[in-house]
C-alpha cells in the first residue's frame, strides 16, 4: 500500500495508534521491579535490593551475559501458577495500551525447573493468561517455549519431553540465552524433533553472534524467523538470502542499545535493513530491563533514524505477516492497519 506522507511531528502519534503484533518478548523480562517486590513479599523471598528504585538503578549492562545474570536473579520470585498468570496479565495490559493486537510470548521452563518449580506451573499460568487475553485485553496471545542454549542439548530434550503433556498450549519452540560459544547446530537434533512434532520454529541468532549463526539457524535448525539477526548486515550473501526467502527478523532496538550491540540508536542498522528489503519487525525483548515497551522502541528508533510513515506501515504489516496467526486473522489485522493509516489526521 502506498502511504501518504505524514509530518514528522505527527509520527509518534501514528506509531502509537497503529495496530501491531509483538513477536519477540520474553515474559520473564516484563517483570517490573515493583511486581518483583510484591511477589517476593507474598512468596516470602528476601531480595538483595532495598527498593524497586535500587533494582532499576542496577540495570546497567555491558553485554548480553551481564544482563542474563541479573535477569536470572529476578526470576527467583516466581513460584506459583498465579505468579506466572499475574506477570503475563501485567504485560498484556501494557501491550494493549500500545495497540498490540497479537503477541507471541517467549518463556522458558528450564530457568524455573532449575529452581524446583514444575514445568506445568509455568505453562498453565502463562496459558491461562493467553486464554483470557481476548476478553480481558482485546488481543490474542500464544506461547513459544525457548530452550536455554547455555545448557546442553540433552537438557533441551528433557525440557521438550516435560512439556509434551501441554504441547497444545504452545505454538512454537525457540532458542535463547547466552549466544556466543553456543551455536545453533548444538541443538540440531532437538530442533529436528520439535519440527517433527509440528512446532513452529524460531531462534535467537546474530544478536552478538556472527552471521554464521544465522546461516546455521536457517539451514541446520530450519527456523522460520530469526530473533534479532542484526549481525546479518555484515554478510551480503546472507542479506540476499533473508530478502529472497522473506525470512522475518524480530529486531529489538532498545535491547540492542542497552546490551551495547550498537553504541547509540543512531547507529542501529534497522533503517538499512528495511531499505535492503529485509522483513524486519520492532519488538521490546525484555521491556522491564531495557527502558521501554514496544511503542517506546518504535518512537525512539524512528526519532533516531529518521524513519517515515511508509516504514511504519511496513514494520506493522511485517509484524502480522511474520506472526503465526492464521490467514483470516492476518487479513483482518492488515485491513484494520490500512484503515488507521487512511483515516489518520
Ligand atoms: N533471554 C532474554 N532476553 C534475551 C536476549 N536478548 N537474548 C538472548 N536470550 C534472552
Ligand atoms: Zn530475546
* Element pattern in H and E: HEHHHHEHHEHEHEHEHEHHEHHHH
Low-confidence runs? none
Sheet with most strands: 8 strands, parallel
Query: What share of the residues does DSSP label as strand, in percent?
Result: 5-15%
Number of strands: 8
State the CATH class: Alpha Beta
Strand order of the largest sheet: 1-2-3-4-5-6-7-8
Cα distance spanning the termini: 18 Å
Rg over CA atoms, rounded to whole Å, is: 19 Å
Dominant shape: globular
Bound ions, cofactors and other small molecules, one mention each: adenine, zinc ion
* Proportion in helices: 40-55%
Structure classification:
alpha/beta
Tell me the name of the CATH homologous superfamily.
Answer: Metal-dependent hydrolases
What does this structure look like?
The protein has helices spanning 11-17, 33-42, 52-57, 64-74, 81-97, 110-113, 119-137, 153-163, 188-196, 211-219, 236-244, 253-258, 270-276, 287-290, 294-305, 309-321, 327-343, and strands at 20-26, 100-107, 140-148, 172-176, 200-205, 225-228, 249-251, 280-282. It has a single domain (8-343), classed as Metal-dependent hydrolases (TIM Barrel), CATH 3.20.20.140. Strand 6, helix 11 and strand 7 (249-251) form a beta-alpha-beta unit. By secondary structure, the protein is α/β, with parallel strands linked by helices. The protein is built from 17 helices and eight strands. Strands 1-2-3-4-5-6-7-8 form an eight-stranded parallel beta sheet. Bound molecules: adenine and zinc ion.
Amino acid at each position: 500500500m502506498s502511504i501518504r506522507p505524514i509530518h514528522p511531528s505527527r509520527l509518534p502519534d501514528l506509531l502509537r495508534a497503529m495496530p501491531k503484533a509483538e513477536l519477540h518478548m520474553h515474559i520473564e523480562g516484563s517483570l517490573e521491579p515493583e511486581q518483583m517486590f510484591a511477589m517476593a513479599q507474598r512468596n516470602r523471598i528476601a531480595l538483595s535490593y532495598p527498593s524497586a528504585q535500587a533494582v532499576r538503578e542496577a540495570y546497567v549492562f555491558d553485554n548480553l551475559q551481564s544482563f542474563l545474570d541479573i535477569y536470572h536473579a529476578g526470576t527467583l520470585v516466581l513460584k506459583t501458577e498465579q505468579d506466572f498468570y499475574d506477570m503475563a496479565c501485567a504485560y498484556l495490559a501494557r501491550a494493549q495500551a500500545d495497540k498490540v493486537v497479537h503477541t507471541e510470548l517467549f518463556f522458558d521452563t528450564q530457568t524455573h525447573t532449575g529452581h524446583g518449580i514444575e514445568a506445568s506451573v509455568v505453562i498453565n499460568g502463562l496459558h491461562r493468561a493467553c486464554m483470557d487475553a481476548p476478553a480481558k485485553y482485546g488481543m490474542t496471545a500464544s506461547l513459544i517455549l525457548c530452550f536455554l542454549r547455555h545448557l546442553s542439548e540433552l537438557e533441551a530434550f528433557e525440557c521438550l519431553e516435560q512439556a509434551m503433556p501441554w504441547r497444545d498450549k504452545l505454538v512454537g519452540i525457540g532458542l535463547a540465552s547466552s549466544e556466543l560459544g553456543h551455536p545453533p547446530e548444538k541443538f540440531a537434533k532437538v530442533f529436528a524433533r520439535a519440527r517433527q512434532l509440528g512446532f513452529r520454529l524460531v531462534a535467537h541468532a546474530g544478536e552478538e553472534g556472527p552471521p554464521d549463526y544465522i546461516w546455521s539457524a536457517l539451514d541446520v535448525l530450519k527456523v522460520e524467523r530469526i530473533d534479532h539477526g542484526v549481525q546479518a548486515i555484515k554478510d551480503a550473501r546472507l542479506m540476499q538470502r533473508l530478502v529472497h526467502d522473506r525470512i522475518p527478523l524480530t529486531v529489538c532496538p532498545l535491547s540492542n542499545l542497552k546490551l551495547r550491540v550498537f553504541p547509540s540508536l543512531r547507529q542501529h542498522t534497522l533503517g538499512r535493513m528495511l531499505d535492503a528489503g529485509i522483513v524486519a519487525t520492532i519488538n521490546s525483548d525484555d521491556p522491564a530491563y531495557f527502558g521501554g515497551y514496544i511503542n517506546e522502541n518504535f518512537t525512539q528508533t524512528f526519532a533516531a533514524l529518521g524513519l517515515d510513515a511508509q516504514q511504519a506501515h511496513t514494520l506493522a504489516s511485517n509484524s502480522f505477516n511474520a506472526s503465526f496467526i492464521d490467514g483470516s486473522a492476518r487479513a483482518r489485522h492488515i485491513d484494520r492497519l490500512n484503515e488507521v493509516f487512511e483515516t489518520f489526521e
